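Q: Now give one record:
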Amino acid sequence: MAYQVCIDIGGTFTDCLVSNSKGEIAIFKSPTTPGEFEKGFINVLHVAAEGYGLSGADFMREIDLIVHGSTVSTNALVERKTVKVGLILTAGHQDILVLREGPRKGAFQWRLNYPDPYVPRHLTKTVAGRIDARGRELAPLSLDDVRKAAAEFRGLGVEAIAVGLLWSVVNPAHELVVREILEKELPGIPVTLSHEINPMPREYKRIIAAAIDASINPIVRTYIEKLKTALDEEGFEGELLLANCVGGMMPLADMIRKPIYSVMSGPTLAPMAALALSDEPDIIVGDMGGTTFDVSALRDHQIIVTPDSMIHDDSLGIPKVDVRSVGAGGGSIAFVDEGGLLQVGPRSAGARPGPACYGQGGTEPTVTDANVVLGIVDPDYFLGGKMQLKRELAEAAVDKIAARLGVSREEAAYAIYTTSNHNMVAAIEEITVREGINPRDSFFVCGGGATAIHIAEMADILGLKRYMVPRFMAGLSAFGGLISDIRSEESAVLLTSDADFNVGGVNDALARLKQAGNNFLAEAGVMPENRQFEFSFLGRYEYQSFEIEVPFEAEDGIVSEDDLPGLVEAFHKMHERIYSIRADNDVVEFTAWKLRAIGKRSGQDIWQKNTLPDQVGAIDLKARRGIYQQESGRVETVPVYELAQLRAGAQLAGPCLVEAETFTAYLKDQHQGQIDRYGNLVVNIA
């Protein structure tokens, strides 16, 4: 029996979802191994093999495909543990990364230190030579300047180099020559060219993307090589794909060429899962793991891709699925600040030592400890009983907060619980209310091992009407990987306008993009009949500073003069949707053209064949458990149900608890749940 596997490495646990040829899915978890993620990767595969009653070697031979969401590059950037990068720019323009695009600040941040550039000035070198906006060579490239820069980089111990010359997106000749020289002068040092990694006209975003890509290139390459070696040693002979930040998968060779696409790739899989699980047009996805709470949104049943994601003070440069994160996970540490106020996160106990109740040496109170004290989490049934939690250690940790606040243990635990909830609500409002969207109109899909414990109170605060607790909620991102497409984005710069539309130039650009997309999908082994292409353009009103992205239809990748009114109207509508205004009489400029190449994978929809039979008769009660209720100020007994025993159509009424091997769901009063045909719990709030 052949298996397909997705492995998602989180801050505390590594999730493994396995799908067999019948579409049956099983979830397995193993502690994450920080610093040696490949070990946790192999460990969870061994856990899965044991779950199927197979040896590790036999299980590996039965796996056709492994898809993987990696956090290696994200961790390196967040923790500022990247390699030393040298940067080569056009003479006279050495401050592109210093000036950025004018950093934005909050209304009350009236006193800020100007952030340092991503690449320090002493590692930034310039070379003479100039290409203009039309691709003409105004001044020849100085080969001596390039060789001098290489010699200086050698003395400085540079480990990777980024090259960003003006207008290389129109004529890349100078950047290509620079790479040839650097490869001769500094063999073995990876070189990233800005026109290849992020072909767009804006210098800052193009060059910051090149600098970030270079800074993580050796790290990602090393991780992939270690992972591939570990899998080879285990006897794995199938295909390995890696998640990218545009909501899909990439072959290893492509990820090695463009490692920046691995940044924040894991969290992008959760909205892909929600896309498959629900037909609702507007969806909020909340994924609470051990370290962070990741929130994303779907509008008109479409993934939202943002061009403005940030890493510390710098833009990532490339587009990515819009996912926002806050330090609110099960391992987030609670403390009382100097003003006597309770705070939760962003510091986390992580996988080592983990929450106090894990018994691995942690002593500080965490959200998980609070949930144990409240009675929501059963210490004897954590991970289906495979991991025993220690209630007495959780109580000792929470008692520290109780003593500081002068309240009872249960009141302190609830304070931690609700503070964490409000932190997550703020993150949800950031991606909804602040984007002009009313969260009450959205359907919420829970992800991560802890979200279902907290969603009931968050739903009441936000005024949500419905939410879903997926059957594989604890591995939602991994499920997203199992059902995701192979995806890549390509772009080309071509400035034109509706006043003088260059239809020939546009079609030439679209043809090049489609060819590049076909090449990518062919290398990934996608058959022509399984290939799809989505087109968009970057447009703006004349004299506007920034563009917006607008999707459009192009049959066979060709546009005509007759299509121009439709393109212009699509821009007006998108501009009105984003900014609430449109200027029908203004000139519309088109600055760049984009293509998303999508390859459907064999077997990615097989999970839909595995449906539940209808519930017959009353549902079985697993147990009753006392949980602390803030409204009454005392412990009250509520019914507990086992998710695996519920069938399609089974109905639940809160307050109650629903337990699965990898998560617990808490339904409050007025929360009415029903199991759908795939085993997901869909909750309506009266």
Observations:
- DSSP finds 17 helices and 35 strands in the chain.
